[in-house]
Amino acid sequence: MQHIIDDIEQLQMKVAFQEDTIESLNKALIEQQKQLEDLQFAFKRILNKLQAIEPSNMAGEHEETPPPHY
C-alpha cells in the first residue's frame, strides 16, 4: 500500500513541476509576443518614414552630363 502512496506522491510532484514549467514557458511566450509586436510596430514606422522621404531633385551621378573640357 505504501508503494502506491509513494507513486501517487511522485506523480503529484511531477504534475506540479510540469505545471510550473508550462506557466514559465507561457510567460516567456507572452513576453516574446509583445516584443515581436513592438518590433513590427517600429518596423512599420520606419518603413512609413522611408516611403515618405521625397526623392532628391539632384540627378544621380550616372545621370549627370560630363562637364565641358577646354
Large-scale geometry: rod-shaped
Q: Helical content, roughly?
A: over 70%
Distance between the termini: 110 Å
| Structure summary, number of beta strands | 0
Strand content: under 5%
Order of helices and strands: H
- State Rg: 32 Å
- Overall pLDDT confidence: 90
Low-confidence parts, pLDDT < 50 over ≥5 residues?
A: none
Helix/strand class: mainly alpha
The major sheet is characterized as: none
Total helical elements: 1
Keywords: Coiled coil
Family: Belongs to the SlyX family.
Coiled coil: 8-42
Protein name: Protein SlyX homolog
Task: Give a description of the structure.
It is a single chain. This protein is an all-alpha fold and 70 residues long. Helices cover 73% and strands 0% of the residues. The protein is built from 1 helix and no strands.
Topology readout:
Blueprint: H1 2-52
Keywords: Coiled coil
Organism: Paraglaciecola hydrolytica
Pfam family, one: SlyX
What's this, in brief?
The protein is mainly alpha-helical and 70 residues long.
Key traits:
single chain, 70 residues, mainly alpha, 73% helix, SlyX, coiled coil, Protein SlyX homolog
